Amino acid sequence: MNMCYRCVETCPWPTRRWLMSVALLIVFVFGYAVVDAAGPGTGGSRIFVADKTVGPYVLLVWAGPSPAQVGRYTVYARVNDAASGRQLREGIQVTVQAVEEATGEAMEAEANHTNAGNSLDYAAHFEPRTGNYTYAVTVAGPAGQAKVDFRDRVVPTITFGVISAIAGPFIVVIGAVVWYMLARRAEKR
Question: In the chain, how many domains are there?
């Protein structure tokens, strides 16, 4: 460790700045890792219906991860009473239907608090394949029924192979530049 520290300390300022730039670039390239995350709040989310009054309810509907990828896809809903504005946590049934547009294949799941991981929201999990989907969220309760639809496109999962194919050429170029700088420095000695 002291050897590297002395090397950096004895380098002229432009070279030290260049080394730090290369180090930061390497950290940014290799610092990103695809994580197989699961559960609420992973992978980001996207709001599709923002506090829209539909019949007797005010609905907030979002889904994640965003962008939607093959694997687990979760649709969340938060339901408020339109008359009082009070959030409805009990006494309603929330169902979500996903229909793949090209084939017409349908999947349906009941949204609940357990899937959402809290007592405020309702969530339903799906395992979609690549394609365009129409999602229908239906809320049924004592005040009546409400339904909203939204569309989302499911893309293939980004894998390590894809990341390495993109990052590989950059790594080779960085390695060549570092090798050239070290070889040039050795010639000066």
Answer: 2
Going across the sheet that includes 93-100, the strands are 106-111, 93-100, 131-141, 144-154
Q: Print the domain residue range for 146.
A: 46-154
- Quote the pTM value: 0.63
**162 against 175, higher pLDDT:** 175
d(CA 155, CA 136): 20
Q: What are the angstrom distances between the C-alpha of 187 and each of 18, 47, 50, 51?
A: 19, 59, 65, 68
Q: Are residues 75 and 123 in the same domain?
A: yes
Shared-domain flag, residues 67 and 128: yes
DSSP class of residue 156 equals P
Report residue 56 as tokens. Answer: 């007797």
- Mean pLDDT over residues 88-112, rounded? 94
- Any long-range contacts for 18-25 (C-beta under 8 Å, 24+ apart)? 18/181, 22/174, 22/177, 22/178, 25/174
* C-alpha closest to that of 76 among 36, 43, 108, 115: 115
